[in-house]
Each structure stands twice: as structure tokens, then as C-alpha cells.
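Why do we care about 3D structure at all? Because function follows from shape, and shape follows, mostly, from sequence. That is the central idea of this module. The next example makes it concrete: a single protein chain, its amino acid sequence, and then its structure expressed as C-alpha cells.
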Amino acid sequence: EALDQTQKAKEIAALYNARIAQFKASMGEKLKRTRVSVVHIFPGRIIIRTENSFSGSILQELGLDRPLSQKPSAVPKLY
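And the structure:
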């Protein structure tokens, strides 16, 4: 609204949602059996993107499962 681009934003969101639906439809039953990790490898360190990251949120929208170790919401808090 601030940039007077509301209609364009709605169009982009609709295209994004259509692509999500298309992906889910094309995956079919395979979607339930697929687990995905997003890992960034840098010199001297490795970063695993969890469900709370940007890429993790996209994977959730796509309906892709993550390994349990990458689901902070599934790990019980001990404190």
C-alpha cells in the first residue's frame, strides 16, 4: 500500500501460490516420502537451515518434510 503496488503484490502472491499448488500436484504421493535438507557450506563452517529459516518456511509451504534433527519444534525443551 505504501508504494501503491497492492494489485501487483496480489498478482505475484497468486502466481506464487499457483506454483506451490502445481508442485504439490506434480509430486503426488512422493511428497509424503520426501525429506529435504538445506545446507550451506562455507570454508570452516557448515550451516543447516531449519524450519525457522527463510528456505525452511518455503519447504514447509511446499509440504516437504525435514529430518527430525532440523525441526526445532519437534525437539523437546529440557528447561
